[in-house]
Design goal:
By secondary structure, the protein is an all-alpha fold. The chain has one domain: Up-down Bundle (Growth Hormone, Chain: A). It has helices at 8-14, 17-25, 33-36, 40-46, 51-79, 81-101, 106-116, 119-131, 139-152, 157-167, 169-194, 199-208, 213-218, 220-229, 231-260, 271-285, 287-291, 298-317, 327-357, 364-379, 381-392, 396-415. Helix 5 (51-79) packs parallel to helix 7 (106-116). It starts with 7 loop residues before the first helix and ends in an 18-residue tail after the last helix. The model is unreliable at 417-433 (pLDDT under 50).
């Protein structure tokens, strides 16, 4: 049956060039990082780290992302989107995975976290590579497909579960990190071979070739003025900051709560991200796509925040297990996953799309780098705060995320209020440095 022009299937089939290369190589994430990341926090606990140290590592990683994010726009313009993505993927993922594979103490994890902060450089370059040559009306579809690719990666979770069950948590996770380094390297090579430098990337490489680093950094003043005078950009920035903070806390402490408070066995841990991801894919192809296919994204944003909030509150309401998790515990976790998958899927797509909608094409690299830096700076303290809270009570980090989501709802209601139902989708040109 032929796909309709507005469907994700239609977008997937008709992608060409760099958008196709970026989207079609993204599932390799599932054979690399997605296999092992669900175990990272529990792995650190197994090696003797405490909740506060894990939270401190999360904050250190975010601070590293702030510095790399600020430099990301300059690096991306100077080196080009394609080469920057390849080089900094190695720095941000391949090398840290090898460090994690042989880590024994807090300092090794700290080194890996600091290097992993370079992901903000490659995220900026990858975003530019993916969208700069894409049609504007494809943006929400492209970001939805990226989310689908990431979620489908969870299908490989049983591989990790089998290895942990057979060999134990620590040796299995070390092998999985080595595998992640190898597969990520293959992904980097394939994407580089299948892509070309974007039109805007070639322009910016030529424009910045003879400019000093000081002048390039001074160019952020124009990007800052763009953000300051664009209501839509500020709204997108606020939403992205809330989503980043909630994602940081959940990514760090969700598995810790499930493992150490609800007593879910270690081999079952990767199945929860798998179920969440499959549900998110289902929602992205159906309900989320319908809710975001129009021009009024305010209601969709409120739905995302509200349902994600319900999922976080449901999680903290699950009573602590006396022994191993029972059937009721798993049923309640299923409800949490259902709510989280919709809310997180909706907010991820919207936060990325809203940012892309409001970026001037000529200044995309610097503006997006500045936005990412601001988002990471806002989210960074919540790693340490949630680690401190988790050391008191494993549910406290999720009361924190609930409060953040309430702030997201209020921000959307207040900032989006007025005669317009949506932020202007027309980008505002930044002043040249």
């Amino acid at each position: 049956m032929a796909s309709s022009p507005g469907s994700l299937w239609h977008t997937l089939i008709h992608l060409r060039g760099n958008p196709r290369a970026c989207v079609w190589t993204e599932p390799m994430w599932g054979l690399s990082m997605a296999l092992v990341l669900p175990y990272l926090s529990v792995f650190m606990l197994t090696l003797g780290l405490h909740d506060a140290q894990i939270g401190l590592l999360a904050t250190a990683g975010m601070i590293s992302q702030v510095f790399f994010g600020l430099a990301g726009g300059i690096i991306t313009d100077r080196m080009g989107r394609r080469l920057t993505n390849a080089v900094f993927d190695v720095i941000a993922f391949v090398i840290p995975c090898l460090i994690w594979a042989f880590a024994q103490d807090f300092w090794a994890f700290l080194a890996a976290s600091l290097l992993n902060g370079a992901l903000q450089v490659t995220a900026n370059a990858w975003d530019c590579l993916m969208v700069e040559d894409a049609e504007r009306d494809q943006l929400t579809g492209i970001y939805s497909l990226v989310r689908v690719a990431a979620d489908c990666s969870a299908l490989f979770a049983p591989i990790a579960a089998f290895m942990v069950a057979q060999f134990g948590l620590e040796p299995a996770v070390r092998v999985l990190f080595i595998n992640a380094a190898v597969v990520m390297l293959a992904k980097i090579i394939l994407l580089y071979a299948a892509s070309t430098e974007t039109r805007q990337g070639r322009i910016r490489m030529e424009e910045t070739r003879h400019e000093s680093l000081w002048r390039l950094f001074a160019g952020y003043r124009g990007a800052a003025r763009l953000l300051g005078r664009s209501r839509g950009s500020l709204l997108a920035l606020a939403i992205a900051a809330v989503v980043a903070a909630v994602t940081l806390v959940n990514g760090t402490f969700w598995q810790v709560l499930v493992s150490h408070r609800l007593h879910v066995p270690d081999p079952l841990l990767p199945f929860f991200p798998m179920v969440r991801s499959l549900l998110s894919v289902l929602f992205l192809f159906t309900l989320i796509r319908r809710l975001t296919s129009g021009h009024d994204l305010k209601q969709a944003t409120l739905w995302g925040f509200g349902i994600y909030l319900a999922g976080q509150l449901a999680l903290v309401a699950i009573p602590a297990a006396e022994g191993d998790a029972d059937l009721m515990t798993y049923a309640l976790l299923g409800v949490c996953l259902l709510l989280d998958s919709f809310g997180a899927g909706m907010l991820f797509m919207l936060s990325e799309s809203l940012v892309a909608f409001h970026v001037d094409e000529a200044e995309r690299s610097r503006v997006m780098a500045l936005q990412r830096t601001a988002v990471m700076l806002a989210a960074a303290p919540f790693g340490w705060i949630s680690g401190w809270l988790s050391g008191i009570d494993r549910t406290y980090p999720f009361w924190l995320t609930s409060a953040l989501l309430v702030i997201g709802v209020i921000t959307t209601l207040v900032w989006w209020a007025g005669p317009h139902t949506e932020p202007s989708l027309e980008p505002v040109a930044a002043d040249r440095a």
